[in-house]
Amino acid sequence: xxxxxxxxxxxxxxxxxxxxxxxxxxxxxxxxxxxxxxxxxxxxxxxxxxxxxxxxxxxxxxxxxxxxxxxxxxxxxxxxxxxxxxxxxxxxxxxxxxxxxxxxxxxxxxxxxxxxxxxxxxxxxxxxxxxxxxxxxxxxxxxxxxxxxxxxxxxxxxxxxxxxxxxxxxxxxxxxxxxxxxxxxxxxxxxxxxxxxxxxxxxxxxxxxxxxxxxxxxxxxxxxxxxxxxxxxxxxxxxxxxxxxxxxxxxxxxxxx
Length: 257
Fold this sequence. Notes:
The protein is of the alpha/beta class. The protein contains 9 helices and 17 strands. It has helices at 3-17, 22-29, 33-45, 70-73, 78-89, 104-112, 127-135, 157-163, 189-200, and strands at 19-21, 50-52, 55-57, 62-63, 97-100, 121-124, 139-141, 146-148, 153-155, 168-173, 177-179, 183-186, 202-208, 216-217, 220-223, 229-232, 246-248. Strand 6, helix 7 and strand 7 form a beta-alpha-beta unit. The N and C termini lie far apart (40 Å).
């Protein structure tokens, strides 16, 4: 197993459990103790985990500034995103006027659309999202604006003006980080502004976030936890339920509060 694959698995385990021992990681990854300890040292140096005696914990508010490309994100946490997307797609009806944010998890939502949900009308700032929606025969609108090469998202003043002219029944949003103190965050200021505007124009807003995004803080704030609901595959910290409605796709029954 490559180091990056081990890193992803270690972070996935920590996202679910918040803490883990070296021995537990050795068994879960079928790796030697020296390999796991070396991985934890590297992850600690990157600020992605806290090393503790005999294991590691996940920082509640790990500050992150970088951002991976859309193509890289599409290959990360695929099963979790597909699970989230399937649940979220079930929230869309044929009469809905939907805002669909750019992002890898919302792209999975488009792929999961079927039946009556295809009759909804969509506005999206995601180039790949618009293409796939059109291929599925959906009515879809794109705002004007500048395309960010890294995320393939349309942003800028023209996009803000366009989105500001709509009222949405539902908005399905992406975020790079979710934390108790900072809410929903993302690396780019322009994308954050457009996301915040869309949330404000929707009757219902749902952030689609897999469990690896909890406890991470990025420079640009989108909105607070109380401004939107969430769909996740697994909620790593029950404290989030104090602030908003949450649906978990991995649970047998949907947990809400």
